[in-house]
Design a protein that fits this description.
The complex is a heterodimer of chains A (347) and B (321). By secondary structure, chain A is α/β, with parallel strands linked by helices. Chain A has 3 domains: 28-188, Rossmann fold, CATH 3.40.50.11540; 194-263, Roll (Ubiquitin-like (UB roll)), CATH 3.10.20; 277-346, no CATH class. Chain A has helices at residues 45-50, 62-65, 87-94, 96-110, 146-152, 174-184, 214-220, 277-281, 288-296, 300-306, 317-321, 328-346, and strands spanning 28-29, 34-36, 73-77, 114-120, 133-137, 169-173, 187-189, 191-197, 203-209, 230-233, 240-242, 255-259. In chain A, the strands form 3 sheets. Chain A has a 6-stranded mixed sheet with strand order 1-9-8-12-10-11, with no helix packed on it. In chain A, strands 5-4-3-6 form a 4-stranded parallel sheet. A two-stranded antiparallel ribbon of chain A has the order 2-7. In chain A, helix 4 (96-110) crosses helix 6 (174-184). Chain A is globular and about 60 Å long. In chain A, 43% of the residues are buried. By secondary structure, chain B is mainly alpha-helical. The termini of chain B are far apart. Classes of the chains: A alpha/beta (347), B mainly alpha (321). At the A-B interface, strand 10, strand 11, helix 11 and helix 12 of A face loops of B.
Chain lengths: 347, 321
């Protein structure tokens, strides 16, 4: 439904995350499996860092070892980072034991005592055995983005141009923590769990070995890709497009979406009509209508200085509601990229 | 496998609200008032409206070809401008005046500023202002509609107030004013249908309620102050709201997207000042109706007003402004 080209009435209703209630879906197993953990008896920071590329979610523990930033809270997201996906909620419901073990490992390895697990309200009953502070997050996009969690739930506003690590927060998904817990319990998982969304909008949980080419998964589901279709890694709001079916499943692929060509939306080059929809939907109250005028004219410096370019949390809601269908998020990402280039050239 | 997939930036979904839909919904909301105008003024009103809409679209097409831009009459905004413009005209407007009006609305007020979204003024109002200044007799509704055989009081209430003070409007029945039994523009006389259309647009979210509401409040406050200062000379708030271009201005002209502010406080200031200017011009200005110049003046201030905006979350310091 959400992937169809247009739907009336959605403008006023909020974009809600998919809620995994009731009966659990059974993941489709494609390949992979588990190995016994023989190499890492003690899971300290070095050990975690050395295998982080193979843990689903691909966490980076650099911030604990090679930086002066002081992390005082570890936030575990039991909620989804984008619409339509159910991966993290599934892990939270099935692997509470591993998550609890993972939290213990993290506590010992990093020395951070304050560990918060953020979950949507319908999953509260599954977290009773987890030894961490449980916080409830709103089930409306974009309240589960790291910047929004740190603002709304932890009361720490991330200043412009800074990352959430600068304010002392470290984010991990529940799947990552479960994988770390699995290591401690003696099993190394080679697999990544992700939500596969077919052309007709059907959702299936898939478990495949990290590195599996996407065409193997398409073959398994009998999906015929045609010209002009869209293949998306990640959710509908923040994902990226894949141009080749040989692309493989990565440790941080939470969602794979196949969008039929009849539902593909195109951006346009109509100028802004100043309707103000983006202003009203922006979660950080950015002056998007003015910013886009500067960015379209390549005045990136002015956009950053006067119209708060670096406050953007890149949720994509402005592009979602834009009446002129301007690719606003793309303009913002481009501006940040160009400014970064200019800065490097100066140094 | 050699499938050519689409690669494009996120997000990959859209809420389906596009310019064409907005234009169509606004035209739809204007239809009841327009049909009421047809009922009151007959076939010549149909002629004015048809000519206005069609010439507006033709001017847009000419502008597209002259500036070598993609053809944009498909988005419906040119038709909408032509429609709102014609609804402000008296039914007796000659054809050449309609042609000149739509020329100013589409080409001067919008085309040379860069097409859709670029207009600093409401195009329909700017065109009307040009006609109003150039041929003021055409907009003396009492004179213009002289040949119409009305069975009700056919005076223009605003010019009655202007000439005879508030006693001039004592003969008007408020209910007749509300349903449109007064002399005025084709689509701007039937207040009740304009209110219905405006509320429909507000509920569907196509116009900003803050502007319309504060506009009405501005008119009520200002006209009430005038009224208590000299009840014989100045009419009360209800006459001001139900007569002239007020209701079409409140719901369809002041709320035009690109010439009105988008932040909350600026919208309130904009609306209140529109109401203030309207009543000031009506009561102590030279013109009979203040809506046209009141809104145009506030259109001029809009970019400055929109500088008042909430602080962006996460913004640290602002050394620039």
């Amino acid at each position: 439904m959400l992937l169809k080209k247009s739907f009336i009435g959605l403008k006023k209703t909020k974009l809600e995350y998919e809620a995994l209630k009731g009966e659990l879906p059974i993941p489709v197993f494609i390949s992979g499996g588990t190995l016994d953990n023989e190499n890492f008896n003690t899971l300290n920071l070095e050990a975690l860092e050395s295998i982080s590329a193979h843990i689903s979610g691909k966490p980076s523990f650099n911030v604990f070892t090679n930086s002066e930033k002081k992390i005082n809270t570890i936030v575990i997201c039991g909620c989804e980072s984008d619409l339509l996906t159910i991966t993290n909620q599934y892990v939270l419901r099935t692997k509470a034991n591993e998550i609890d073990k993972g939290i213990k490992v993290l506590r010992e390895a990093t020395g951070v005592d304050n560990i918060v697990i953020v979950i949507p309200s319908h999953l509260e009953s599954f977290c009773s055995s987890i030894q961490a502070e449980v916080k409830i997050v709103d089930n409306v996009y974009p309240s589960t983005l790291p910047q929004m969690i740190s603002k709304d739930i932890l009361g720490k506003i991330v200043p412009e141009g800074k990352t959430y690590e600068d304010v002392g927060l470290f984010f991990l998904s529940s799947e990552t923590v479960a994988a770390i817990g699995g290591l401690a319990l003696g099993k190394v998982s080679l697999n990544k769990l992700f939500t596969f969304i077919n052309k007709d909008g059907n959702k299936t949980l898939v478990s495949a070995k990290i590195g599996t080419p996407i065409n193997e998964i398409l073959e398994h589901f009998n999906v015929k890709l045609e010209d002009m279709d869209r293949l998306i890694f990640g959710g509908p709001m923040r994902g990226i497009c894949i141009y080749d079916t040989k692309h493989s499943i990565l440790p941080d692929t939470d969602t794979v979406i196949v969008q039929d060509k009849s539902n593909v939306n195109f951006a346009s080059d109509i100028s802004c009509i100043n309707c103000g929809e983006c202003i009203r939907i922006c979660p950080v109250k950015m002056p998007v209508n003015m910013l886009i005028r500067y960015l379209a004219g390549r005045q990136y410096e002015d956009g950053a200085n006067m119209y708060d370019l670096y406050c953007c949390i890149e949720c994509g809601l402005c592009s979602f509601v834009c009446v002129s269908k301007i690719p606003i998020l793309q303009y913002i990402k481009l501006a940040k990229h160009e400014l970064e280039h200019a800065r490097k050239a100066e140094v | 496998m050699n499938t050519k997939l689409i690669v494009s930036p996120s997000p990959f979904i859209h809420n389906g609200d596009i310019i064409l839909k907005r234009s169509c919904q606004t035209i739809f909301a204007l239809l009841p008032a327009l049909l009421a105008g047809f009922y009151y003024y007959g076939i010549s009103a149909v002629a004015v409206v048809s000519l206005s809409v069609s010439t507006a679209m033709i001017w847009e097409l000419i502008m597209n070809y002259l500036t070598k831009q993609p053809v944009t009459i498909g988005d419906g905004t040119a038709a909408l401008i032509g429609l709102t413009f014609s609804m402000l005209l008296p039914a007796t407007t000659p054809w050449w005046a309609v042609l000149i009006g739509t020329f100013f609305a589409i080409i001067v007020a919008r085309g040379i500023f860069g097409g859709i979204g670029g207009n600093p003024f409401n195009p329909s109002l700017l065109a009307l202002a040009v006609l109003l200044i150039s041929w003021p007799d055409m907009f003396d509704f009492n004179e213009a509609l002289l040949n119409y055989d009305f069975i009700y009081n056919m005076m223009d209430p605003l010019s009655a107030v202007k000439r005879f003070g508030s006693s001039g409007v004592s003969s008007f029945d408020m209910f007749n004013l509300l349903i449109g039994k007064q002399a005025g523009g084709i689509g701007s006389v039937s207040g009740i249908f304009l209110i219905i259309g405006g509320i429909y647009l507000i509920i569907r979210g196509f116009i900003r309620w803050e502007i319309s509401l504060s506009f009405i409040i501005g008119i009520i406050i200002t006209s009430f102050l005038f009224n208590i200062s000299d009840p014989n000379k100045y009419a009360g708030p209800i006459i001001h709201i139900l007569s002239g271009y007020t209701l079409i201005g409140v719901f369809f002209l002041a709320t035009e997207d690109s010439s009105s502010p988008v932040n909350f406080i600026p919208m309130i200031i904009y609306g209140l000042c529109c109401g203030l200017m309207t009543v000031l011009i009506r009561n102590i200005g030279a013109h009979v109706d203040g809506i046209v110049f009141g809104i145009l003046l506030m259109n001029l201030v809009q970019p400055l007003l929109d500088k008042i905006r909430p602080k962006t979350i996460g913004k640290v310091a602002n050394n620039y402004e």
